[in-house]
Each structure stands twice: as structure tokens, then as C-alpha cells.
Amino acid sequence: MVSLSLVAIDMTILATAVPSVVKDLGGFEQFPWLFSIYVLATAVTTPLYAKVADRLGRKPVMIAGIVAFLVGSLLCGLAWSLTALIVFRAVQGIGAGAIQPMAMTIVSDIYTLEERAVATSYVASVWATAAIVGPTLGGVFADYLDWRLIFLINLPIGAVALWLLRHFREDRRPAATTAIDWSGAGLLTVGGIALLLGLLEGGHAWAWASWPSYLIFAVGIVALVAFGFVERRAVDPVLPPWVLGHRVLAPANAASLIVGVVMLGLTTYVPLYAQSVLGHSAVVAGFALAGMSIGWPIAAATAGRIYLSKGFRVAVALGALLVIIGGLVLVTVGESSSFWHLAIPCFVLGLGFGWSVNPGVVAAGSAVDWEVRGVATGSNMFARSVGSALGVALFGAVANGLVRSEYAGGEVPPLESLPADVLAPALHVVFVVGLVVSLPLLVVAWRTPVRISR
User: Fold this and answer.
1) 373-407: per-residue pLDDT in tens?
2) Which residues contact 147 (CB under 8 A, 6 or more apart)?
3) Residue 376: per-residue pLDDT
4) pTM, rounded to two decimals
5) Going by CATH, does the domain composed of 240-454 fall within 3.40.50.12280?
6) What is the CA radius of gyration of the chain?
7) CB burial of residue 388 (10 Å; 0-12, 13-18, 19+)
8) Residue 206: beta bridge partners?
9) Domain 1-179 coded CATH 1.20.1250.20
10) If 0-12 CB within 10 Å is exposed, 13-18 middle and 19+ buried, where does residue 283 land?
């Protein structure tokens, strides 16, 4: 839990300090890369760490991830320019790519299915705490102390995590002589970086219909196609093809992908609606979104009671229904709506996300043996990262496309500067698209097994 808190707090602590960082280091146009590069590095390294963990063990991979994260944090705290800070955020992301999947894999290793229902509630409490502590701590450091403490505070937390890991003993250790599929790993890394980078930066750093966009997607597609051919012949593939068709992993990963898409879109545009359309302050807008961050851990903490008594299918189905209900209420929000009209559906959506995803993570760890459990958990985390990148691209294209149509080819102001009568219809369509994207969760629930057997 201490290790996971590094990643959980880091997901939220920087957002409130961006103005102070930019004021000190300059480079306002570059600041979105502080988040994009971190997400990118985390996503592409997760499957690689997962595979190595199945070969060498969880503990060395977790230690390597924490050390990389701490090195990145120290360098971020010493950054002399925004470009340097972006590079060092990538180092942080490389470490984070190991910490989250290893934490969940270790939980699956050391607890039975029944015990995991309780253990995952503790894990969920880390994210719930981070959702509140992270932005507050970031604001305090930026306004009253020094924004560099946002990164340097990770050092004592990471030191405690490394000290606690001394007492962790793995019951089983795989054969360290098994070769790792480095060629497949390299192609997956290149393809993943190109594809995710194209999705994250398309429409921002470059236009969708431009040569940089065509080139980067072409590189990603070619690398991933080559990866598919290599994996078919690999003795021990880094991402085995059987993961895609596994009766438990396939629906679990699909749920993570869909939730990743919808969650990123709402995380981006709900605060914008609260501020620019409803006229609330940034703090109030943050509270509206906090309902989602609180709802998810509550669902994760209570999901065990459902899937242990009624089965995994029922838990995921309830989650899917809540996501759809929350989405339906969200699309009724208008320019005269109250704060609660926006905040309550966010809370319901958070509950739905938790019940849709967390049972799948537990099921994935229960449905496979130790030797492939890292890959199973890692593939689920990777699916959510890919979904987040798709969400950035999809909702960004919808919002920006609708706004451009209002300006008939003229210069378009930034979204946050648009008048409410232009922004509200565009964001309403974004919410509708989010609802439509969430509908396949019902199919995922139907495909989820009631009980787990290997």
C-alpha cells in the first residue's frame, strides 16, 4: 500500500501546481507533456514489467520500479527547465509502470479469493485518500512552500516502501533461466509509444490530418503488426495471444478499456463544464469531479460482497448499469443546472467504474497460475491505459470539431475561454458520446463468468 501510494498521489498532486511550475520554469506551451509523457511511459512499460515479474519474481521488479520512480522524483525536484522536467517525468513513469501492476499481482499471490475482497478495499482506500490529499498537498506546496516538494516528498515515502519490502518473501520463484522475448518487447514498446503518442497529442501538438500524424500512426501500426507475427513464433511471448481470448481475462480487459475511455473524457470535461458553463470556481469544479474519485474506492471496497455471494457477472452488470444511469443523468445537465446535478452523476459513475473494473482485476488474478499472473494483471492495466489514450483522442476530437464548426474556419479560442453558449452544446455531445461508449459494458457483463475456475 505504501508503494502504491507513490503512484496514487502522483496522479493528482501535480495538477494544482502547474501555474507555479510554469511561472518558475517557463514553457507554458509544453506543460501538457508533463502529464502525457508520464502516462505514455507508464503504459508502454507495464506489459514488459509484468512479463519479467513472471520470470524473475515480483519483488525485484517492484524494487526496480520504486528505485526508478524515486530517481525520477529526485531529478524532477532538481529540474532547471520545463524540458528537463518533462524528461524526468518520463523516468517517473517508467518506475510507475512497475509499481501498480506489481502491487495488484502481489495481492493476488498472497491472498485467497475471499481474502482479496478485503485486501482490495484497503488498496482502494489508498486511491480515495490520494484523490483528496494529492490536490490539497500540491496546492499547499505550490502556494506556500515550493512546488519542488511535490516530487521530493516521494523520497521518504519510497524509502519506507523499500524498507517494508525487505520483509516480503515470495512463496514461489520461477526459473530465472527462461529467456525473455526481447524482440517482441521492443516491437511492443515502439508500437505502443507511437500509437499512444499519436492519440495523446493528435489535434494538439499537430493536426490529425497532417504528415506527423500519418507518420507516427504508420510507425505504430507497422510495429504492432510485426509484433503480432513475432509473438506467434516466440517460445515465451511477452504478451501471449491466449490473453486476448481467455474467458476471464478478455471481458475483464474489455471493461478496463471502456472505463479508461469514459473516465478520461469525464475527468477532462466535467470540471470545464462546471467552471465555464455553470460559472463555478476551480475548487468547486474539483469537488464535482471528486465524487467520481470517491465513488470508485467505495465500490471497490464493497464489490467483494457481491461477487463472493452473487458471482462476478452480477457485480460487473451492476457496475455497467450504474455507469449507464450516471451517464443518462449527466446528459440532462444544462446551463441552469445546479452543482449537485453535475456532482451526483459523477459519484454514481465512480461507483459504476469500481464495480465494473475491480471484480475483473480480482478475477484475472484468480483465473491463472502464478507463472502467468503478472501478465494477466499487467494486460488489464495496459488495457486501461490504452483506453485513457483513446478517450483523450475521441473526446478531444468531438469537442474541438464541434467548436470549430461554430467559428466557420476562423481562429478558435482555447476551450476554457469559449463563451458558455458555444461550449455547452459541444460538451453536451461529449457527455452523450461517453454514454454511448459505456453501453458495451452490458455485453462485457454478459460475457463475464459467474464463478472463476482455472
Assistant:
1) 888 888 888 888 888 778 877 887 787 777 777 76
2) 17, 20, 21, 24, 141
3) 84
4) 0.81
5) no
6) 21
7) buried
8) 202
9) yes
10) exposed
